[in-house]
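ESCALATION

Customer reports they have been waiting on this structure for their group meeting. Please prioritize. Original submission:
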Amino acid sequence: MVSIKDHLVELLESFDYSGDVEERIRLLRAAIGRVGNIFYGTESEEVYADQVRRIKLRLRELRDKLVNCGDDRGCWREIMDNLEELRDQIERLALRGEILEK
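Update from on-call: job pushed to the front of the queue and completed.
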C-alpha cells in the first residue's frame, strides 16, 4: 500500500510530465488535499491551514478561468504559469511542514 507521502510525491512528479491543463489542476488539487490530510489533527494544521486554503481557492479560480478561456493561447499560458507557481508553493509547504525532504 502506498503511503500518503509517497502518493504526494507521485502526484507532483505526474504534474511535471503532464501537458494538459485540466489534468494539472486535478493533480494539484489532489496534492494539496494530501498535504491537508497529513497536517490534519497535528500542530502543523493550525500553522499551515491558511496556506492550504488559499492554494485550494486559487486552484478553483484557475479551473473557472479555464472554462472561460476557450481557444485563447495567452490565457492558457497564463494558467499554466500559475499552475507551475502553485506546484512550487505546494512543494515548499510540504518541505516546511517536514512532509518531504530535499
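Sent to customer with the following note: The chain is about 80% helix and 0% strand.
Escalation resolved.
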